[in-house]
């Protein structure tokens, strides 16, 4: 699309960078390193990053040559510029993306606002930081690594550096945690300026399907899960219907009847049964749609999710809305108490917080629409340094899984006999185990990678290019590690990649093929496909089965089938995009609330005094009081000022400050003004009798505590709202619209409730009583007075 036009412009810049090569080489080390200070100066004097791009790239390029002996190729300069421009650079595996990033990192680090390099695991974060550190040390750019088990102090130091290497998960969790701190100085991050996401498709697309969640307190519903599970297991296939394409399951008429009998209900669909209905639904999905060792594995009594695209185990990730517990019930492991969400964000909305965002990966073009629509990033294909000579062969198609695996093992044997290294790509751990067993029977030595232990697997896969090496890997396993060919392997065809089935996305297939034939190496790739593969079964496999039955153990190379596989993949890619888009649509609603709350919270944390916030809250409450005390008599609506005055007396208002008779004669807006003014005065009077330092602390702590508590309840409420929204009868509205409307009501309600709660707590401070106690006691007393049920003044 736009690649050619953009590349033309970038090539001009690359030319200019290359033209500086000699000048840069003539500089002494000191002179070259001194460029950093010069650039910083020029930026202070008003030049922009774009103004100094060419020179800065030339400097970083030369520094790389001198310090680590790698001279970035022109295509790497192109990639670097794409990254600086905030787009996705699609560069094939082995093209040297780690080094490519050095130049835009250097340029953007000069601004001093921070550059984050995001990798998929901590092993890669550390590795890449180590690889590039000498260059940055030389240039006087500080670099840090942020890891999961670091103390806040360590994390803060890592984020304070010009450049920070870390993982997507850690970065997101740090962000959420930073918005839960009690004091501004406890934050570890210092803003989100520029980031480069490595393996961008994996992070920004695949992982973006599950939001980041920090959980808090819990509630125990174990019996309900067990009952729903037992009920589901009692069903026969006629009782439910599964739509494999969308992975939805529903009870049939007989199923509904059984449910009503089992749980002794009149009507399962009654709104009062909606929680049970939700549980049954989850139990059905757990038992009949989600498969052990495919969607999840059981490891040490825990359910661990498997990424459907990559086969990688997603430790710590859980299904939401009770599905996880339903699966735990199914597998008879300990049922985790359902936790409440304390903080949450989707990756999509997290990444959007950056001033500038860029990504690099070997495979992104097929997902360009998503990158553009969700992240506003274009995908630019960068030409390879040397042309690719890998042979990508057409798929072999078999009738059965058995025939497929048998033939696959034969090809492995043949190639292995010649000494050719082979990488077998599997879709999940299950298939890996199966192939491994078959290889063992044949006496073929091999290694298995499941993306469990990154450092060890990186070491194994780096040897996958040696003579006679046979390596079995799920898709993410060893990603990011170079497979270097042993001397002589070139002559026997390089690395051979064999795929055991086509994956759900074309991107993952391409990623697998791309493991071979790097930097102009010879290489080979072929996918083994059978009609019984999940992908084909999901899209009309039953019909094909008959047609292909006559094949026996033989295979065909069917263009027709290959085309329909591609179509099926496109369809799934589309469905998955929709699912992520849907997730995002809903998260966008919370995102607005989150931004408002986090901004308010930051304001509290950074203000010398929170009095102006309290003043506003007095107004909010005053306005609400008029609502609370408005009454309807006959057709007439009026405000019961007598009740208002009595109800707030001595709590919010000093006795005798307001006369109901006077209020009656005023306009409502005037009354609001008057009440909030008098109430605030009353508060100021009380607080003036307390030590300024102490009351400041109390106000601060009270605000934070109330904010956080209500916010947590709000997001919990929203997730319930979301789960049940389709059950509600909104005739004209689609569920998303209904959700948006309800959510915004809940949000205004929360704002009002927060104001009420804060004022209740602060106005209940009795200076006479409190003076005699020690300082911490006062704080404890106020915070402990926090009533669990929401009450309102009045
Ligand atoms: P990618 O992430 O694109 O798959 P890597 O960054 O892992 O690739 O680099 C692959 C290999 O290429 C590494 O061994 C690296 O040292 C090497 N490499 C990268 N750039 C250059 C270069 N300009 N000259 C020589 N070798 C390079
Ligand atoms: Mg890489």
From TrEMBL:
Residues 1-560 form the SecA family profile domain. GO terms for cellular component: cell envelope Sec protein transport complex; cytosol; plasma membrane. InterPro entries: Helicase_ATP-bd, Helicase_C-like, P-loop_NTPase, SecA, SecA_DEAD, SecA_motor_DEAD, SecA_preprotein_X-link_dom, SecA_SF2_C. It is a peripheral membrane protein. Its EC number is 7.4.2.8. GO terms for molecular function: ATP binding; protein-exporting ATPase activity. It is found in: Cell membrane; Cytoplasm; Membrane. It catalyses: ATP + H2O + cellular proteinSide 1 = ADP + phosphate + cellular proteinSide 2. Keywords: ATP-binding, Cell membrane, Coiled coil, Cytoplasm, Membrane, Nucleotide-binding, Protein transport, Translocase, Translocation, Transport. Part of the Sec protein translocase complex. Interacts with the SecYEG preprotein conducting channel. Has a central role in coupling the hydrolysis of ATP to the transfer of proteins into and across the cell membrane, serving as an ATP-driven molecular motor driving the stepwise translocation of polypeptide chains across the membrane. It comes from Spiroplasma platyhelix PALS-1. Residues 404-573 form the Helicase C-terminal domain. This is Protein translocase subunit SecA. The keyword Cell cycle does not apply. It comes from the Bacteria. Its main location: membrane. SUPFAM superfamilies: Helical scaffold and wing domains of SecA (SSF81886), P-loop containing nucleoside triphosphate hydrolases (SSF52540), Pre-protein crosslinking domain of SecA (SSF81767). GO terms for biological process: intracellular protein transmembrane transport; protein import; protein targeting; protein transport by the Sec complex. Monomer and homodimer. Part of the essential Sec protein translocation apparatus which comprises SecA, SecYEG and auxiliary proteins SecDF. Other proteins may also be involved. Belongs to the SecA family. Residues 78-273 form the Helicase ATP-binding domain.
């Amino acid at each position: 699309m736009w690649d050619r036009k953009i590349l033309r412009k970038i090539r001009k810049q690359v030319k200019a960078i290359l033209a500086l090569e000699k000048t840069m080489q003539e500089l002494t080390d000191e002179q070259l390193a001194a460029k950093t200070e010069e650039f910083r100066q020029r930026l202070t004097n008003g030049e922009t990053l774009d103004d100094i791009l060419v020179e800065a790239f030339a400097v970083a390029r030369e520094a790389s040559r001198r310090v680590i002996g790698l001279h970035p190729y022109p295509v790497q300069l192109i990639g670097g510029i794409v990254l600086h421009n905030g787009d996705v650079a699609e560069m094939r595996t082995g093209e040297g993306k780690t080094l490519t990033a050095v130049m835009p990192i250097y340029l953007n680090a000069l601004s001093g606002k921070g550059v984050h390099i995001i990798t998929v695991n901590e092993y890669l974060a550390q590795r890449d930081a180590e690889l590039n550190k000498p260059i940055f040390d030389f240039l006087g750019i500080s670099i840090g690594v942020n890891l999961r088990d670091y103390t806040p102090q360590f994390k803060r130091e890592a984020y304070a550096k010009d450049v920070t290497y870390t993982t997507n998960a850690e970065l997101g969790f740090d962000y959420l945690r930073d918005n839960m701190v009690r004091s501004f100085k406890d934050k570890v991050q210092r803003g989100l300026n520029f980031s480069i996401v490595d393996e961008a498709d994996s992070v920004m697309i695949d992982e973006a399907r599950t939001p980041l969640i920090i959980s808090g307190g819990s509630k125990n519903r174990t019996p309900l899960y067990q009952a729903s599970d037992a009920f589901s297991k009692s069903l026969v296939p006629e009782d439910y219907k599964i739509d494999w394409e969308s992975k939805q399951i529903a009870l049939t008429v007989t199923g509904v009847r059984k449910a009503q009998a089992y749980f002794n209900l009149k009507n399962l669909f009654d709104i009062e049964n909606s929680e049970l209905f939700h549980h049954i639904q989850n139990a059905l999905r757990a038992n009949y749609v989600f498969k052990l060792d495919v969607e999840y594995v059981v490891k040490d009594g825990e359910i661990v999710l498997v990424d459907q695209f990559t086969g990688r185990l997603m430790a710590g990730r859980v299904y939401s809305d009770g599905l996880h517990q339903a699966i735990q019930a199914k597998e008879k492991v300990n049922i985790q108490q359902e936790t409440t969400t304390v903080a949450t964000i989707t990756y999509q909305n997290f990444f959007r917080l950056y001033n500038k965002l860029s990504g690099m990966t070997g495979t992104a073009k097929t997902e360009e629409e998503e990158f553009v629509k969700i992240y506003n990033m274009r995908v630019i294909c960068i030409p390879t340094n040397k042309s690719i000579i890998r042979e990508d062969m057409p798929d072999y198609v078999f009738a059965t899984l058995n025939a497929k695996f048998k033939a696959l093992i034969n090809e492995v044997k043949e190639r292995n006999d010649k000494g050719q290294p082979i990488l077998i790509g599997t879709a999940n751990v299950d298939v890996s185990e199966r192939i491994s067993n078959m290889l063992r029977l044949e006496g073929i030595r091999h290694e298995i990678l499941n993306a469990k232990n990154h450092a060890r697997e990186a070491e194994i896969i780096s040897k996958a290019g040696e003579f006679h090496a046979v390596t079995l890997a799920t898709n993410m396993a060893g990603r990011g590690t170079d497979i270097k060919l042993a001397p002589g392997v070139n002559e026997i065809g390089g690395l051979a990649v064999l795929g055991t089935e086509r994956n759900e996305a074309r991107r993952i297939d391409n990623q697998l093929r791309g493991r071979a034939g790097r930097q102009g190496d010879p290489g080979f790739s072929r996918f083994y496909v059978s009609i019984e593969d999940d992908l084909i079964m999901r899209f009309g496999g039953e019909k094909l089965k008959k047609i292909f039955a006559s094949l026996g153990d033989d295979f065909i190379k069917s263009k027709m089938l290959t085309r329909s596989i591609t179509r099926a993949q496109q369809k799934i890619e589309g469905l998955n995009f929709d699912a992520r888009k849907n997730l995002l649509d809903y998260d966008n609603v919370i995102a607005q609330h989150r931004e408002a709350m986090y901004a308010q919270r930051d304001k509290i944390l950074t203000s010398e005094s929170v009095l102006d916030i309290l003043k506003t809250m007095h107004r909010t409450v005053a306005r609400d009081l008029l609502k609370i005390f408005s009454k309807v008599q006959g057709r007439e609506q009026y405000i019961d000022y007598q009740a208002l005055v009595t109800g707030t007396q001595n709590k919010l208002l000093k006795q005798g400050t307001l006369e109901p008779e006077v209020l009656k004669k005023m306009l409502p807006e005037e009354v609001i003004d008057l009440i909030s003014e008098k109430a605030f005065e009353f508060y100021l009077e009380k607080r003036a009798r307390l030590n300024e330092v102490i009351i400041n602390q109390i106000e601060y702590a009270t605000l934070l505590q109330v904010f956080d508590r209500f916010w947590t309840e709000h997001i919990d409420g929203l997730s319930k709202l979301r789960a049940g929204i389709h059950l509600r009868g909104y005739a004209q509205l689609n569920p998303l619209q209904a959700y948006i409307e309800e959510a915004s009501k809940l949000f205004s309600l929360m704002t009002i409730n927060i104001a009420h709660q804060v004022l209740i707590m602060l106005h209940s401070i009795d200076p006479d009583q409190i003076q005699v106690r020690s300082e911490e006691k006062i704080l404890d007393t106020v915070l402990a007075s926090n009533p669990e049920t929401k009450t309102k003044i009045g």
